[in-house]
Design brief:
The chain has 184 residues and is α/β, with parallel strands linked by helices. It has helices spanning 11-31, 64-71, 166-178; strands at residues 2-4, 47-51, 57-61, 79-80, 83-84, 93-96, 103-106, 117-121, 134-141, 148-155.
Length: 184
């Protein structure tokens, strides 16, 4: 679990967030196991967003090559929901211009010993409202198995004030979405 955007929370709310996430993950781990665990560190392969005429991938998702070019002029980040994707979690890839230009490479990261990357945020965004307590989504999948490998969950900060039983239950529900149980 990688926490992001929680620095605006009080230390007590940060601790509450960690407790809620820990409880929700413990519940899910009682019922779910990865059939084929990752050997070594997990590096998530980027998905191809566009192919050139020769069938080569000309635009990756996430695209750290384009993000690096954009960063030269601003502070562009590659996002998964409200969270910035950690480039050390992404496998190396090469992208060639669809117009016949040169190729550029992203060196890839080192990964971590895990089967899934979860980015947790606690920010009041446009989705947080009177009826929304939290939200989550998967962002990247294994191309061979279609198993989610990376996702995010956002717990609306007001939810951290709720009772001790409701908030973990809400997050368990949302983490199912981050694991791929969605309508999409």
């Amino acid at each position: 679990v990688e926490y992001q955007g929680i620095n605006k929370l009080t230390p007590a709310r940060q601790q509450r967030l960690r407790e809620v996430v820990g409880t929700a993950i413990a519940v899910l781990q009682k019922y779910y196991r990865v059939r084929r665990p990752t050997a070594g560190n997990l590096l998530v392969p980027p998905q191809c967003g566009a192919f050139d005429q020769a069938g080569n991938c000309s635009a990756h998702i996430p695209d750290f090559i384009a993000a690096a070019a954009a960063r030269r002029g601003s502070s562009a980040e590659v996002k998964c929901g409200s969270a910035a994707i950690n480039s050390s979690h992404i496998a190396a890839y090469t992208e060639c211009s669809a117009q016949g230009g040169g190729c550029e490479s992203f060196p890839g990261g080192v990964g971590e010993t895990t089967d899934y990357y979860l980015y947790v945020t606690a920010v009041s965004d446009k989705i947080c409202g009177s009826d929304t307590l939290a939200w989550a989504l998967p962002c990247l999948y294994d191309p061979a198995t279609n198993r989610p490998l990376l996702g995010t969950a956002n717990l609306c900060p007001a939810e951290l004030e709720q009772d001790a039983y409701e908030t973990p239950a809400v997050l368990v529900h949302e983490l199912h979405h981050a694991l791929g149980f969605t309508d999409n």
